[in-house]
Specification:
Strand content: over 45%
Strand order of the largest sheet: 3-2-1-6-7
Order of helices and strands: HEEEEEEE
Radius of gyration: 16 Å
Number of domains: 1
C-alpha cells in the first residue's frame, strides 16, 4: 500500500489525537458567527498516523515582549499538537462540537 493509500484509509475515529503543524495561517476575517474568535489560527496538522487534517489551533501560549506586553502566540511548522474537543456553538437542543488542536 502506498503512503497516499494508507493516509486515505486511516480511521479517524481511532487516531491518537497527536500530530504536528504542517502548515498554518492566521485568520483575521472570520465567517459569520465566528467573529468573536478573531484573530485565530487554522492549520494543517499531520497526524502521528499519517493523514493531514485541517483544524483550528487553540490554547496557544502568548509570548511577552521586553516591555512585558503580550504578543501573538508562537506557532511553528513541526510544532507538536494534541487534539481536544470543545463545544463551539449551541443550536436548539443540539450541541456542535469540533476537534481542535493545542
Amino acid at each position: 500500500m502506498t503512503e497516499m493509500e494508507h493516509n486515505r484509509s486511516c480511521d479517524l475515529d481511532n487516531v491518537s489525537g497527536r500530530g504536528e503543524v504542517y502548515s498554518y495561517t492566521k485568520v483575521y476575517d472570520a465567517p459569520k458567527g465566528f467573529e468573536e474568535y478573531v484573530p485565530y489560527y487554522v492549520a494543517l496538522v499531520r497526524l502521528k498516523e499519517g493523514p493531514l487534517v485541517t483544524t483550528q489551533l487553540t490554547d496557544l501560549h502568548f509570548v511577552e515582549n521586553e516591555a512585558g506586553e503580550r504578543s501573538h502566540p508562537q506557532v511553528e511548522i513541526e510544532m507538536p499538537v494534541e487534539m481536544v474537543t470543545r463545544r463551539l456553538k449551541v443550536s436548539g437542543d443540539k450541541d456542535r462540537g469540533a476537534g481542535l488542536w493545542i
